[in-house]
Amino acid sequence: MTVITTTVEDGVAVITLNRPQARNALNSELLAALPKTMTACDIDPDVAAIVLTGADPAFCAGLDLKELGSSGGNIRGGRVDAGATYSSPWPAMTKPVIGAVNGAAVTGGLELALNCDFLVASERARFGDTHTRVGILPGWGLSVLLPQAIGLRRAKEMSLTGNFLTAEEALHLGLVYRVVAHDELVATATAIARDIASNDTAAVQALLASYKRIAATTVGEGLAIEAEVAREWQGRTFDPGEVERRRQGILERGRAQP
Asked: What local confidence, expressed as pLDDT, does residue 244 receive?
């Protein structure tokens, strides 16, 4: 089974994380495939906008804890672009990326969502940051992008407790801008992407680049700090064996969250 599927129609690429049996958890294979797929769509002249979603029942459960608790190989996922001081789940994109969050978006999965330009959520979506429960630190911008989306104090509470937000709570806080019936999610996100694709492509990309440059003036230093702290933590403290010891409790607690 391929870990990512892609369809392109009417100027819109729909990229689907496709490890449903593992709740689309990020193993080394998926971590390697995702940036390549995103880049391929970004340079495809037939693509004007991108929708990122997951195969049901989850959007992305974060790093695959089985691999993390054994070899720890997937903790080295992500990339640093030339001239950048921080890691990201995919290379810099010139085309809009809409996250269609169909289920749980947890930890690394939440970071994937936060790296999208904006989010539409299914009524079944849930959002959680369990980095501190796993014993790792974010490295894809969560400690900058989450407070930017929902406010610093709420982000601290979410990260330090590991508690989840429902789709409606995420809407109220501004993490997502729309919640729709589950069966309508991809169609809704695709319709928005088609609206984008119907505009002048060069103007869309220029305006998106402007938004990103402006954001970088306020978040760039924070992203560099996050990356520095994560590197130090992983080099000094990360223990795959401790992740494995905690794994079952983390899974059970996640299932019990609303």
From this structure: 64
